[in-house]
Design goal:
Helices cover about 10% and strands about 55% of the residues. It has about 190 residues and is mainly β. It has one domain. The strands form three sheets. Strands 2, 3, 6, 8, 9, 12 and 13 form a seven-stranded mixed beta sheet that branches. A four-stranded antiparallel beta sheet has the order 5-4-7-10, with no helix packed on it. A hairpin with a 2-residue loop joins strand 12 and strand 13. The radius of gyration is 19 Å and the shape is elongated.
Length: about 190
């Protein structure tokens, strides 16, 4: 069993009153995991694996990490938790992209400094000895700007021509993105014959 943390739906439409299309295209993203925890329950018995030595994850070019072996069988529940945290100057999560509407194009940077817990569960998972499994937690980037309008982005404060959304810059936009980040992620289990 191994893990991946992956960004999906990298184009986010932005709400507005006009019929002109406005969107943010996310071009890069990184996550800073401090702990990854895996729990599996089978017949009243629980298996747990934890890793605290995890490198920064490139969300646009994911690689598998945290490989370990669990006994074969059908598990009532599998739970995966990834805790993202700021470390030094490295934020818990950073996204970079481009906001574009019919008249303007601006670079956008989102930096999340607060700890984020990505917790996902899957019921009734069967593990066999001849299969390798990857638990893929997806971050749906198209949902993070829900409730953010073109007007809000056009009225946001710029930092040297960059629309920075962080705990200290454009806090109202930051809070909206943070709320969606806590709610919009899920896990899928992919298996492959060995």
């Amino acid at each position: 069993m191994s893990y991946q943390l992956v960004a999906t739906n990298k184009t986010a439409n932005v709400e507005g009153k006009s019929t002109a299309t406005a969107n943010i295209v996310w071009t890069s993203g990184m996550a800073n995991p401090r702990m990854i925890k895996f729990e599996a329950k089978k017949d009243g018995t629980e298996i747990e694996y934890k890793s605290t030595n995890v490198d920064t994850i490139d969300l646009m070019n994911p690689i598998s990490f945290g490989g370990f072996t669990i006994p074969s069988g059908t598990y009532d529940e599998i739970e995966l938790r990834i805790d993202l945290e700021k470390e030094g100057r490295t934020p818990a999560l950073r996204l970079e992209g481009q906001f574009t509407n019919s008249t303007l194009s601006l670079p956008v940077v989102v930096e999340i400094d607060e700890p984020i817990e990505l917790k996902t569960e899957q019921q009734d998972v069967t593990i066999t000895d001849d299969m390798s499994f990857v638990a893929v937690t997806t971050l749906d980037l198209s949902t993070y700007t829900l409730g953010i309008t073109t007007t809000m982005l056009l009225n946001a404060k710029l930092d040297n021509g960059v629309l920075v959304i962080s705990s200290t810059s454009n806090k109202d936009l930051y809070n909206k993105i943070l709320a969606h980040l806590h709610a919009n992620h899920h896990v899928e289990f992919h298996h492959h014959k060995r």
